[in-house]
Design a protein that fits this description.
Length: 326
């Protein structure tokens, strides 16, 4: 009988993807409400230190799956490994964060097991003791409730920023090794460089501080004013879609439904009105500060702190104070 929630732990270059802690937090909350224990699984080689980091969270077991064919990510390797892990553990839910890696292998895995994948959810609720997942449609204009049906496991992924990874409950989990059988006949793919939106792209999903600029900046040369503030704060610079469409900043700096989804500790929105397409990409930020001359701008509806005024006066003043604090 299937039981428990199994969380996929993603890691890159010896570091756990911050989004994986968001997945753990989601599993902790759901598991507590439906009476299911939470475990985690991590693939690769020499994953002991990473497993130890996950074991410090309130879950039952951390399973390590080490194999030479899992040293580098391939959709083939992860799919065949996961099929064997699922056969051994029989989880009710396989929970993941909606990263590029998950988007690559999860549909292949779900299809191979003839299961549905409920992807890119932003939340959940419990009805009759079972989770109902919420995902956005029409670029965030509407939300739809989705219920997994059929045999378990059910495959579920959450949009980055839907949960707070820093709110994971602490604990001491047991670490166990699982064995899978993989060989060259199963792994048809050759490991390639990890996907990026653009050459030399920055991964804004891992940035703790972000300063984002919108069309209120008026012209490209004025972006230097906002960049100076970002540098003073030690933050990454990002933008809303119009800025990137005009090629004032590279596309890899775009936040929103057609760009990156982020959840930093601080998101400072400068001259951004707050179109829904932008809000869906940053609403999970821990603290949102908005600067806009329009007091009715939609961005103020989700901002923790709002400054109504001329950004060309406010931003230099903030920059001066940030530089004093260095």
């Amino acid at each position: 009988m299937a039981n428990g929630i199994l969380v996929f732990i993603e890691h890159v270059d010896g570091k756990i993807n911050r989004a994986s802690f968001e997945a753990i937090r989601a599993a902790q909350l759901i598991g507590a409400q439906i009476g299911q224990e939470v475990s985690a699984v991590i693939f690769g080689q020499e994953t002991g230190n990473l497993a130890g980091e996950i074991a410090a969270k309130k879950i039952k077991t951390v399973y390590t799956v080490e194999n030479q064919w899992l040293k580098s990510y391939t959709a083939d390797g992860y799919t065949h490994a996961f099929k064997q892990v699922i056969e051994q553990l029989q989880p009710a839910i396989l929970l993941m964060t909606h990263t590029y890696e998950v988007r690559d292998f999860a549909p292949k895995l779900a299809a191979s097991l003839k299961r549905a994948l409920l992807g890119d959810n932003i939340g959940y609720k419990i009805e009759d003791g079972k989770p109902v997942f919420t995902r956005q449609v029409f670029q965030g204009k509407l939300s739809a409730d989705v219920v997994p049906v059929g045999e378990t496991p059910h495959f579920v992924s959450f949009q980055i920023g839907s949960f707070r990874g820093d709110e994971c409950e602490g604990g001491k989990a047991e670490v166990k090794a699982l064995t899978v059988n993989l060989d060259a006949d199963l792994i048809r793919q050759q490991p390639e460089e990890r996907f990026k939106e653009a050459k030399a792209a920055v991964d804004l999903t891992q940035a703790p501080l972000i300063v984002s600029v919108g069309r209120g900046i008026k012209e490209q040369s004025n972006i230097a004013i906002v960049k100076k503030l970002a540098d003073a704060l030690g933050a990454e610079l990002s933008a809303s879609r119009p800025i990137c469409d005009n090629e004032w900043l590279p596309m890899d700096r775009q936040i929103g439904s057609s760009g990156q989804t982020v959840a930093p500790k601080l998101y400072l929105a400068v001259g951004i009105s707050g179109a829904i397409q932008h809000l869906v990409g940053m609403k999970g930020s821990r603290t949102i500060v908005a600067i806009n001359k329009d007091p009715e701008a939609p961005i103020f509806e989700i901002a923790d702190y709002g400054i109504v005024g001329d950004l060309f006066e406010i931003v230099p003043a903030l920059t001066a104070e940030a530089e004093k604090a260095k």
